[in-house]
Protein 1
Amino acid sequence: MRKPVKNNVSWIGYIDWELQTFHGDEYSISSGSSQNAYLIEEEKIILVDTVWAPHRCEFVRNLKAELGDLHRIDAIVVNHGEVDHSGSLCELLREIPDTPIYCTANAVKSLEGQYGKQGWNLNVVKTGDSLEIGNGKKLIFIEMPMLHWPDSMATYLTGDNILFSMDAFGQHYAVEELFNDRADQNLLWKEALKYYVNILNPFAVMLARKLPEIESMGLQFDIIAPSHGAIWRDDPMQIVKKYAEWSGAYQEDQITIAYDTMWQGTEKLAHRIAAGIHEKSPGTVVKVFNISKTDKNDIMTEVFKSKAIAVGSPTECNGILSSVEGWLAFLKSLKFRNKKAAAFGCYGWSGEGVKILTERLAGAGFEVIPETVKCQWNPGEEDFMAATRLVESLIK
C-alpha cells in the first residue's frame, strides 16, 4: 500500500516489524525497520529503489495494484546495489525487462556481481547529471561513495525539494506513521545515532567532506527521505546538522568501561574503576558493560559518545577472552577518533592479557594511557590503588 509523501511522491516500501538482525547478525534491531522505496508520478513515472528479496513478490504485487500496469514505469533509480534496496529488481524486471535503470558506475558492478549480467538497461550517472521527468521537474543525481558502499548515491527531486538520501540519515526503526514528527522522538534519535555509529562512522572523514559539497550545490531540502526508518519532513536539516557534528571526532563527558570476566576478578576491577571515575569526576557519565552479555552495537554507541574507555579481560591461554578479542576487532573497524583508552585485567600465571589489550586499543586508533591494572588472581588493595591511578590518568 502506498503512502503519500508530498504531491505526486509516494512511499511504497515495506515495514519490517519482525526484523531482529541486519547485515547478517552484525547489527541488532530492537525497534523494527523499514525498506523505503518511493514512487514519483509526474509526466514520467519513476521508481526510486526497491525492497529486500524476501518481500519482492509483495512489493511487485503492490506496484501492480497501484499502477495497474507495470509498463507505466518509465525508469528505475537504483541509489545503491545492496540487497536490502535492490532485492526486488530481478522479480520486477522479469515483467518490464527493458526499463531504464539509472545508477553509478560502481552500482553496475555491484548489480552484475550480485545478480549476474542480465542484459538490463543500465545507464550510468554521476554527480550533477539529471533526468527530466516532466511538469518542470527533474531528478539530480549526487554520488556519495562509501556512504556506505562505493556505489552509493542520492537523488534530488526539484520542485518538491526532496532528497532521496539512501542509507545516509536513516535509522533501523519501524515508523508506521512514516514521518519524523510522528515518531517517538526518544526512539528516533536513539536509533539514528546507533545507525550512524555502527554503519556510517567508519566513513566519517568522507562524510565530513561530502556534506559541504552537497551544500555548495545550492539545493533546498524540504524533505529528506532515507532508505530506512522515518522520513525527515519537520526541520529536515536537523539530521544533517547532527551528521556534521557526529562526523567531527565527536565526544561527550562520558567514560565507558567494557569487559568480560572469567571468575569475577576482572569484573571487580571494572566496578572499582567505575566508582573511582564517579568519585574523581562526579560530572562525568559512567557506563559499564559486560561484553558477553550486552549487545555490541549498543556498547559501540556508548563508546562513540565517550571521551575515554577502559577495556578489561583476564588472560586466557596466553591471550584474552575470545568475546573481547572479537569485540576489539569490531571496535577497530568503526574507526573512532579523538578518544583515550586504558587496559586492565586479571591473570593466574602467564599474564599477557593487559599487554594484548593495550596493543589492540592502540591499533584501533585510541590514545592508550600507560597506567594499567594487571592483577594476579583476585584484586586486593594494591590493585585497587593501581585502579585509582588509572582513573586519575584517564580523566585528566
Note: The chain has two domains: 3-246, 255-391.
Protein 2
Amino acid sequence: MSKAAADAVYDALVNNYGNPSSLHSKGLEAQHYVDAARRAAADSIGVNEREIFFTSGGTEANNTAVIGAALSRKRQGKRIVTTAVEHSSVIEACKYLESLGFEVVYLPVNSYGAVEISDLKEAVTQDTILVSVMYVNNETGTVQPVDKIARVIKRSGANALFHIDAVQAYGKLMFKNSRLGADMITFTAHKIHGPKGVGALYIKNGVRITPRLYGGMQQHKIRPGTEPAPAIAGFGAAIREIDYTNIDNIRSLNGYLRKQLEDIDGIVINSPENALEYILNFSVIGIRSETMLHYLAEKGIYVSSGSACAKGQPSYVLMAMGLSKDIADSAVRVSFSKHNTTADIDELIKALKDGINSLARKDSK
C-alpha cells in the first residue's frame, strides 16, 4: 500500500472515526472521505459519482453485477455470454445462475487467450440479457477487445447489459467508459496500491440490478451496510496517485525479464507479446508451481502461480488457451509495480536458475 493510502486509512481510523451514515459531526467527517473517494473513482473513468458503488472488493462487485443483472432481467431472457478465462468470481457466479435455470455460454479463446469476435457474434442472440468479459486477464495479461465487444452487442439488437471486469486494467490502462461502452465496470483498490478489502462497481444510470445484500439505505440500497470509511479513504488516496506515465518503465522491465527467461532451458513464456506489460506468465517445465513458489519465497521473492484465488490449482486459463497440463501445472505469474527494478529481476533470474538445478536434483533422487 502507498504511504498516502495508508495515511488516509490511519486518519479515518483514529481521527475521523465516525459512522458515515450518522448525522453528527463525526459522521459527516467520515462521509467526507466516502464522498471524496467516490468523486475520484468516478472522475477516473469518466462517469457520474452517483454511478459508483463501493463493495468489499472485486469478487463482490463481480457477483453483484453478474447475478444482480441476470436476476433483474430474467423475464427478458435467460442467456448469458461470458468467456472460459474469466476470474473465478465471474465463473462461479455464472455456475450459480445455471443452477437457477439460466443458460451460460462460455466463449473459447485463441492461443493468445483472446476472444474471437466471430464467436461472440454467433453467441449473442436476441434472448441474451448479459455479456461479461474481463478487460485484462489476471493470469496472462491478455487484453480483450472490449470496445469491439460493446459494438457487437449494440449491433446485435439484443437488449443485453455489458459488464467489464476491469480489476487488472484499472490504473494501468487509461480508459474512459465513453470509449468502452459498458453498463457495469468492476475495479478494486489493492491493484493500485490501495488497501485490500474494498472495491467499486460502476452501474450506468438507468440500469436496474437486483441487490445481493439487503438492509439499510446506504448506497441507494444497491450495497447496503455501513461503509468502511477508512478503507474507502485509502482507495480514494490511491486513485489520486494513479500515474499512467510509468508504463514505459514497466514495458522495459517486462522486456528485460522476457529476454532473460528466453535464455533459460525449460522455461516457456505463456503471456502473449501484446499482453499488458504489468503481467508476465511463464512455466518452468517439470517443476510444479507450488514447489517453485515456495523455493522463491524462501529467497524473499513473492510471485504467484496464477490467480491468488485459485489456491494452487492448475490454471484453467492456460488450459483454455490450449496449453498442456504440464505447462499449466508449472506456471508462474510475475506482477510488476512502479517499485520494481532490473535488480529485482536479476535476483529472480538467479533464484530461478538455482531453483531449477536444486529442485531437479531432488526430483531425480
Note: The mean pLDDT is 94.
